[in-house]
Fold this sequence. Notes:
Layout: H1 2-26, H2 35-47, E1 63-66, E2 69-73, E3 86-90, E4 93-96, H3 102-112, H4 142-151, H5 159-167, E5 220-226, H6 241-245, E6 251-254, E7 270-273, E8 282-283, E9 287-289, H7 303-306
Parallel strand pairs: 5-8
Antiparallel strand pairs: 1-4, 2-3, 4-9, 5-6, 6-7
Amino acid sequence: xDGRLKLILLAxxxxxxxxxxxxxxxxxxxxxxDPELAEFVKPLQETGDSLSDPSxxxxxxxxxxxxxxxxxxGTGRGGFNERPxxxxxxxxxxxxxxxxxxxxxxxxxxxxGHRKPGPPSRYAKRLAQLRGPNQPVxxxxxxxxxxxxxxxxKRLPGEAEWEKAMRxxxxxxxxxxxxxxxxxxxxxxxxxxxxxxxxxGSFPLDRSPYGVHDGFGNLMEWTxxxxxEQARHPNDPEPExxxxxxxxxxxxxxxxxxxxxGNDLRITARSFMVPxxxxxxxxxxxxxxxxxxxxxxxSAGSESQRNL
Length: 308
C-alpha cells in the first residue's frame, strides 16, 4: 500500500510540473526576443527602475536658448590645450538642458533599429548602475551620438558652443563660479553620494548661468570637433575631414565625469578619443541652430539668462 501511494504521489507531482511546459508547447509560439535589447532592459526590471515606473517621472528632452554674442573661451590658468584665453563671438543656438538619457536614447534604438548602447565586449564594470531611465546614456560612440542628434533634427555641439553654454560669458572656471568645490558635481569617489552616474539634474550647483545641467560632472561629452592641441577658433575654416579621419584622428570630449579626479578639473579642460570608442564614462547632448528645432518641449530660460 505504501509503495502504491508513493507511485501515485510521484505521478501527481510530475503531472503538475509538466503542466506549464505542455501549455506552452500547445500555445502560439512567440518570436524570439532580441537578446541585446533584453540585456539592456533587464537591469531596469531587476531593480524596479522601469521606464514606466510612476515614481520616476520621465524628464522631458528640454532645450535652452543660448543668445548670440561674445564669451571668453579658454583660460591662461590651465593646461596647454586650454589656451589661449580669447573673446569669441557665436550665433545664437539651442542646447539640450540635460545629457541625453537612457529613456530617450532607447526610443531612438527602438524606432530606427540602431545598435544598442553597450560595451563592445561583454565586460562592463557598472552596467546595472547606469541603466536608470533618467540617467545619461553611456557606452555610445561619437558615431552613435551623431546619428541620434541627426534623428532628432539636431547636431552635436561645436566645442565653442559647448563651452559657452556651460560657462556663460564671464570666464568662470566652473559652472557655479571660480571656487573648485568638487562635491558640487558628480565626480570621482562616493563622497558625492554616487558610485556611478546620477539622474540628470541631480546636482543643482552643476548648472550653468543659462540653466544647462551637468556640464562639469556625470559624464564626459562628445563634441562635433576633431581634436587639435589648441581649440580651433569658430571663425577659422573647418579642416578637411579626411585629414583627420585618414590618419586616425580623435574627436574632442568636454566636461568631466563620475570617474574624474584631480585639482586641475575645470570647465575649460579638453580631452579626446577615437570616434569609434564606447565607454561607461562618455555620453553626449545635442544642439540646434537658432531656428526653433523640431522637439516636443523647449525652454528659453529666464530673461536674465537670455541677457547674459
